[in-house]
Amino acid sequence: MYFSVLPLLLGPLAGVLAVPLIRAEPSIVVTKVSPAYWRATLSNPPFNIQGQAFYEDLYEVIDQVANDNDVKVVVFDSNVENFWIAHFDLLNPVPSELVGEAWWENMSRLANLPVLTVASIRGIARGGGAEFAAALDVRFGSKEKAIFAQPEVGLGSLAGGGGMRLVPMLTGRGRAMEIILGADDFDADTAALYGWINRSIPDEQLDGFVDKFARRVASWDKYALASAKSIINQDTGFPSREQVISDYDNYMAAFNQGVVAQRAEALIAAGLQSDEEFEIHANEELVRFSGDGPWPAE
Ligand SMILES: *[C@@H]1O[C@H](CO)[C@@H](O)[C@H](O)[C@H]1NC(C)=O
Ligand SMILES: *[C@@H]1O[C@H](CO)[C@@H](O)[C@H](O)[C@H]1NC(C)=O
């Protein structure tokens, strides 16, 4: 998860910019395939940025799921070409009440609901997108098109939304070191081999596979599903509020020191969050922005 640089750059102006967005279309579209099987489609082109709209709409979806007695499985997919969720919004300030503690409370709530959550990942899931996927119950990725990364350390920052804890839980110590300290892209085959995602599925089979899995789960008794999820949660655990709040504080501290904000500004000037090619190859570009700068424009 990244932190928006604009508040650091604009200071008092940031508060003025942080007015609620007025949006005609939701950034997450909920489709009830059946009362028991819902799809929540990430739908905020061009990059499905994890910004204000994402947080507001996601918390709304979690409320809907929590307050519905019939739903048993929710699939989170994307209708944006090339992206599941690119990363945290570095360009537009995200109100602080939506991130940090609120994020982890909402993720813990979702992890403990009597409903199976499934990430169906086609495209890039970096930073906060990878953390969100890791916080869901089950992950399936497109063999050809899914990309996973925790690039924060490459920026001089840290993952502040659960990734520091979830990645080691899923992959073990050595692989977590490679993922988090290497800060590079991983394809679905490698992510599956590492246990970061459940399976890598050929792209043309992904939707059919996930649909079949979701329909199968949706046909079971809710009581049995709820008990099974709760027992698995007891044994595998889920990162605690204290752990993730401490990660968030460390990430804020990292972001506010040294050249991290200037580096993020340089990345944005070079095309991050505006240029699609740059965004796709952001993790190759990142090595040009190491050290104290000045960083080459291209
Ligand atoms: C979720 O986030 C919202 C918005 O910041 C917040 O009001 C709420 O308390 C959070 N926690 C839970 C458990 O929903
Ligand atoms: C999900 O992935 C875990 C490893 O991360 C694996 O143990 C489990 O069997 C997988 N589940 C499915 C449904 O593929």
Protein described:
This protein is an alpha/beta fold and 298 residues long. It contains 15 helices and 10 strands. It has a 6-stranded mixed β-sheet with strand order 1-2-3-5-7-10, with helices on both faces. A 4-stranded mixed β-sheet has the order 4-6-8-9. It starts with 5 loop residues before the first helix and ends in a 13-residue tail after the last helix. Bound molecules: 2-acetamido-2-deoxy-beta-D-glucopyranose (2 copies).
Topology:
Layout: H1 6-10, H2 13-17, E1 28-34, E2 37-42, H3 52-66, E3 73-78, E4 83-85, H4 101-111, E5 116-121, E6 124-126, H5 128-135, E7 138-142, E8 147-149, H6 152-155, H7 163-171, H8 173-182, E9 186-187, H9 188-193, E10 199-201, H10 203-218, H11 222-236, H12 241-255, H13 260-270, H14 276-280, H15 282-285
Parallel strand pairs: 2-3, 3-5, 4-6, 5-7, 6-8, 7-10
Antiparallel strand pairs: 1-2, 8-9
The structure holds 2-acetamido-2-deoxy-beta-D-glucopyranose (2 copies).
The site of one 2-acetamido-2-deoxy-beta-D-glucopyranose has 7 residues, from helix 4.
Highlighted features:
alpha/beta; four-stranded mixed beta sheet; 298 residues; 15 helices; six-stranded mixed beta sheet; disordered N terminus; single chain; 10 strands; 15% strand; binds 2-acetamido-2-deoxy-beta-D-glucopyranose; globular
